[in-house]
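Supplementary Note 3. Input sequence used for the single-chain structure prediction.
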Amino acid sequence: MSSLMNNLILLIIFGYFLGSIPFGYLISKTKGIDIRKVGSGSIGGTNVARALGIKWGLLAAILDLLKGVIPVYLAISFLIFNWQIALVAITPVLGHIFPLWLGFKGGKGIATSLGVLFVLLEWKILLILLFVWLLVLAISQISSFSNLLMVSFLPLTLWLSSFSLAYFALGWALFVLTWWAHRENLKRIKEGVEPKIKLKKSI
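The predicted structure, written as discrete structure tokens, is reproduced below.
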């Protein structure tokens, strides 16, 4: 049991610090841009795409997604209980939204949350979520709106896919964190001034 708890503690620490790596910020820095001073100020893939082009935005998003995949995959491999896996699963999202290296001011957590879901959900359920996200994005052209709508389904989705109270709680935690991270976007959506997606040509 002690080795199991040691694994849990190590994976929680690992998950947070991996989640804290600000890939979007680092990518933009190599191009001479501080992504925190561009667009929405987020370090996530959407804002990187706005500033640098879609290929750099996709790179940032994929790296952010992997931040969610790796800790959860390791948790499933080395831990037993759902509550332990759920605890590890939330840490990379916390790291992304509150990165140690950037004064605890990071991104919105969407790509990293998708990485978590990539491991925990069946591929059919994940595809449905992604389809809803893409459909709403295509119609509204507002990334934050599609993000918020998608995460609103997470508590129910994780419950129906597992009937685990631990994963149900994880869904609520992801919901609350994501809505909190989008609080400025919510204000702009209510005021009708939230910018629509306009991508810059790759540089």
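The mean pLDDT is 90. Residues 52 and 115 are 23 Å apart (CA to CA).
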